[in-house]
Amino acid sequence: MKAPVSWIREYVDLPAEVTTEDLTTRLTSLGLKLEAIESAGADITGPLVVGRVLTVEPEPQKNGKTINWCTVDVGAANGTGEPQGIVCGAHNFAPGDLVVVILPGGVLPGNFEISARKTYGHLSAGMICSARELGLGEDHDGIIVLPADAGEPGDDAFDVLGLREEVVEFEINPDRAYALSLRGIAREAALAYGVRFTDPTERDVPASNDAGYPVVIDDPDGCPVFVARRVSGFDPAAATPDWMAKRLQQAGMRPISLAVDVTNYVMLETGRPIHGYDAAKLQGPIRVRRAHEGERLTTLDGTERVLSAEDLVVTDDSGIIGLGGVMGGETTEMSATTTDILVEAAHWDARSMFRTGKRHRISSEAGKRNERGVDPVITPAAADRVVELLTTYGGGTVDPGVTVVGTPPDQPRITMSYDLPARVTGIDIDAATTVTNLEAVGCALTKEDTTLTATPPPWRPDLNDPFDLVEEVARIVGYDQVPSVLPRDAAGRGLTREQRLRRRVGRTLAGAGCVEVISFPFVGDAAFDTLGLPADDVRRRTVRLANPLSSEEPSYTTTLLPGLLKAAARNVGRGATGVALFETGTVAFPSESGPAPIYGVEWRPSEDELAKLFEALPAQPLHLAVVLAGERERSGWWGAGREADWSDAIAVVRRLAAELGVEVAVASATYQPWHPGRCAVFTVAGEELGHAGELHPKVAQAFGLPARSAAVEIDLDLLLRHARDVPPGPQFSTYPLAKEDVALVVADDVTAAEVEAALREGAGDLLESVRLFDVYTGDQVGEGRKSLAFALRFRAPDRTLTEEETAAARDAAVALAAERTGAVQR
Amino acid sequence: MKPEEVEAARDAALAAIAAAADLAELKQVRIDHTGDRSPLALANREIGALPPQARKEAGQRIGRARGAVNQALAARQEVLEAEHEERMLVEETVDVTLPTDRLPAGARHPLTTGSELIADIFVAMGWEVAEGPVIEAEWLNFDALNLGADHPARTMQDTFWTDPADDHLVLRTHTSPVQARTMLSTEPPIYVVCPGRVFRTDEYDATHSPVFHQVEGLAIDEGITMAHLKGTLDHFAAQMFGEGISTRFRPSYFPFTEPSAEVDLVCFVCRGATVVDGVTCRTCRGEGWIEWGGCGVVNPRVLTACGVDAERYTGFAFGMGIDRTLMFRHGIEDLRELFEGDIRFTTAFGSEL
């Protein structure tokens, strides 16, 4: 909401010395948040004065131009009282005219400093200004010639030109709809300074009579008050007075025609939106009702709208002529020939206004006010003000008929104990202050011993609860009075298990050289296609958004990989030779349990109701994804580096599982977007944890990643659920270690994990560790076979092992491996 | 062997030992002069054949000679070993300024570590950290928070709805539904902070993002007032931005709080002075204050909807953007840097904030 300060001052006795900065600071501390202060002429420094042209001597120049050598009376402004000699290139003035002169020492917009200087053979001491030079517009046809009564030579021209006229813009919160008017802002200003407020809606309004335009309200809940006034013989060609046009512009509205401008002006002044009909186009009585589903109306923006049974409409015998309170219809619109105007000022149900505006996507100045709530009591006064302005500036007569149908809704009565403001704010606010402040905002009070009952003023539909009154009291006392006190110490339980584990996961991954990223969780089919997901892949069943930012990515993602692979590619594109990224984030899978219920808010929903609510939510597991692309270990003076491969991806999961003490089984799998021969599936206690391995070459290529890039995606919730909570302190032997290395030849399709498991089981309790240290394929083992070399380490808890014991354990291990996997010792 | 021959053999050995230039030469000298075929060893072997009296004398003489040789050998060995070691250490000198970055460093995202920092500040006060789903029921995101379907304030938050919209699911527009969930599931006293990811249909630019992060706080107890809210936020501000950085309240409007306030932070760069080195402070643009978030006393209607006895308990709530807070704290100029995933950005923050 933009408001010229001079307009605010019209309704409030602000001391002259109050600056705009001070005013806006105080209003901000009352709850009207300052957005900006605009000021025409803020970039002009005087002396800028009124001058009277005394002489004008045209002097043709060699370049074909003619300049004027002028003398100008600037009164005492130049310190001497002598006429000022000024060279001027414009010709639209004559001796005797009042002009605007900037004297040496002044500065014009663009930091243009004025000094006395020699030009065209004269000492030109200043400049006669055009509108453009003053930053007041683009008009450069000539200099400004002031009206003859504008002032006397030497007068300060800032005031004459309305420069220094400041316009303040406030952000108005939904609860302060009354401040969407000069009336409301001025009222707050009066409150801020404790000075008198003159209500622009306080006027003598003629009473309703039978001679007014017939109006029937079928839906008094939707439209409690409807006022109709009529002006006849209006001159449609009449111009909007300059002062009104200027104020409309300052408030951010475009002047259109006198009739429209007056309705807008009164809306800005009072907050009450007004609609004007071309009375000649009305047919029969006006009737306000709800629309029938599917009825149509072309609103005055030229859009045909299909109406809902909830929309409030204004009708006459021709049908619907307007979407009540939101936008008028085309058929009765005022035009350049309208001489009879029917003025509508009506009070509408705010909720209906909000719904209709939302349904038809109409956002208008009128709708903004009507949907937030307007003072219902001022409706007749606003209409009266409109007809006054119309006839004052557009001629014609106000018809004696006055229609006022309906009565304003009752105001609520709010009972509150006197000490509530102190109890809620922590400020020492006594009963007297509470009473004073509530009366200052316009509440009518009934006082009892310990409680008061407040009837809020009609312009405050936001005041309904005792806590609403507390805010009113507190904002006048001042929020700066709130003391700073820490609450009592709570016996908190610290972070939850999951929160601690998540930190541990992040630290482990960072320790493994991975860099965390956060991407947007939006995805589309294109990404799934690029990942090569089959048509029936569960990841293609997404939670779709009704209003996605981009139609390309209309869903909440089911996999973190697209975002992560894009981030990796971005890094590669920016020159990174090796990228290891991880992300932990929520993915979503649709719920089958139907729409989420909407409950009332008068009481807490039951446990069953809450259970139903929670069930309707999509499953939203926390995933972890990792991508490893390019150099995993850098090359350098120490030798060659190492490119990331499938094993790095699997290593990340193993490292994490070890950190969390979770037993994770690894097996090979075929799963997009991984390389079918280089993909591992992990399981925890029989449940699938996720996958890791080398990306399918097509996928790596499609995302612009180096060949052999590897990735991981696992269900982090599942991993964390199985994390070991209280690891037992380990017990280990300090007796000597016995080492046995064995090389076992197995068929190609036997996995290392299978052989290792057999060795482990066969070796028995004396085995401390087993580690595969070499894999060999080639002539020595034959086609279709491979040799796996394991280092077995034995140790007893209570003695030094003999060679026989160690050999026996080794042989048992090899024997079980042979039995289980067909392994042959080399 | 004659005594002078023994002495000659000993002297020859001592000379050879002294002349040995390195450990390899000394090893040869040892073989030559103390080995089985060395003169002194041979002489020693001959002792047995001597008559008993001569045997004793010869034994003593040869023994002394061999002892002297062995002593000299040991001494020389020590010297040569020391020399060798010294030379080795000199030869093995490296350029310690060579790069050592074999393994690239990892890092955690500042939004993660920043959220943890905030959580830790509150946990230290005995608060707990509450979390909830990002795809949330409309009732929890709006209605339970006094934002009914026709509340004009719903348009203050541009909401992502799931399809179809009558499923009544949204991408949560704030972390307030976590507060509602906490109240629905926990008896007061409640002291929780709720950091998390939130969504609004904002265009993506240097200061706006459709995906961003919020931390909200909720305290519900007997006798809670706005003064406790102020005290908590002053403490939070000082922990986040440094001692002496406090807050101020301006009246505002949020449906879930009444009274409501905007929270401003004393600019931690100019510390309220509005100018730095004679130039208008860039961080606060000369305001002396930075807009930080919103807060207020929990609207009793919210308490009622969430099953808290509004007669007995009062509460306060606050919320601020984590992204924005970190941008201020670390002088990050463009919000989008948080979501680009450029490793140069993230690694600059290490693994803790």
TrEMBL record, chain A:
B5 domain span: 409-484
Pfam family for this entry, one: FDX-ACB
Chain residues that bind Mg(2+): 462, 468, 471-472
Enzyme class: ligase
InterPro entries attached to this UniProt entry: aa-tRNA-synth_II/BPL/LPL, B3/B4_tRNA-bd, DNA-bd_dom_put_sf, Fdx_antiC-bd, Fdx_antiC-bd_sf, NA-bd_OB-fold, Phe-tRNA-ligase_IIc_bsu, Phe-tRNA-ligase_IIc_bsu_bact
UniProt domain TRNA-binding: residue ranges: 42-158
Reactions it catalyzes: tRNA(Phe) + L-phenylalanine + ATP = L-phenylalanyl-tRNA(Phe) + AMP + diphosphate + H(+)
GO CC, alphabetical: phenylalanine-tRNA ligase complex
Predominant place of localization: cytoplasm
Gene Ontology BP terms: phenylalanyl-tRNA aminoacylation
RNA-binding listed as a keyword: yes
Cofactor info, note text: Binds 2 magnesium ions per tetramer.
Location in or out of the cell: Cytoplasm
Domain FDX-ACB: 733-826
The entry's keywords: Aminoacyl-tRNA synthetase, ATP-binding, Cytoplasm, Ligase, Magnesium, Metal-binding, Nucleotide-binding, Protein biosynthesis, RNA-binding, tRNA-binding
Domain of life: Bacteria
Cofactors (names): Mg(2+)
EC number: 6.1.1.20
A molecular function GO annotation: magnesium ion binding
Quaternary structure, from the entry: Tetramer of two alpha and two beta subunits.
Xref: NCBIfam families: pheT_bact (TIGR00472)
Similarity comment: family membership: Belongs to the phenylalanyl-tRNA synthetase beta subunit family. Type 1 subfamily.
Protein name in UniProt: Phenylalanine--tRNA ligase beta subunit
Organism annotation: Nocardioides agri
Source lineage: Bacteria, Bacillati, Actinomycetota, Actinomycetes, Propionibacteriales
Gene from which this protein is expressed: pheT
